[in-house]
Amino acid sequence: MIIAHEETPLWYVVHTYSGYENRVAANLEKMVENRGIRELIQDIRIPTEIVSEVVPDSEATKEVERKLFPCYVLVKMVMNPETWHIVRNTSGVTGFVGPGSNPTPLSEAEVEALGVEIRIIEVNYAVGDSVKICSGPLSGFIGIVELISEDMKKVTVSASLFGRETKVELDTNQVETVE
């Protein structure tokens, strides 16, 4: 068994018996509370979606919560031998997702795509403000913010390149305010 000693909590996928997702989540929550290890096992989620279903023999619909990934539970945890043992030996758990018995954490892109963690991005500049580009091929150039995307992930900056105004789309973390 290979277990990476990780200090940062990451999201792992735990495989369960069919229909045991809620029971596994509840048992894990109880163990976390009883052992006082909230800093090691921080969050337990069962990804669901709300679906409208047509009621038989009627034109009415009802909203039903459905599991996105039956037989799987997501756990945000610090991976170490103790936490691996606690999760792996929870009733209803068949193992972690990963090669062999080596749990593989979800990447940031996978966590974002699943909507498990919602990150709120705040920027300290607005449209019309001067900003300095701090990374990428235009690093060091000064420009004016033209547009900030609704999700606050992208910013369009108008920078002067060789005497011409050029609009560049950048990630919001690639620019900083000019004082």
Characterise this structure.
- By secondary structure, this protein is of the alpha+beta class.
- It folds into two domains: 105 residues, Alpha-Beta Plaits, CATH 3.30.70.940; 48 residues, Roll (SH3 type barrels).
- The chain is built from three helices and eleven strands.
- A five-stranded antiparallel beta sheet has the order 10-9-8-7-11, with no helix packed on it.
- A hairpin with a 2-residue loop joins strand 9 and strand 10.
- The longest helix is centred in the first third of the chain and has 15 residues.
Total number of beta strands = 11
- Let me know the CATH homologous superfamily of the largest domain: NusG, N-terminal domain
Distance between the termini: 53 Å
Overall pLDDT, averaged?
Answer: 87
What does the radius of gyration come to? 23 Å
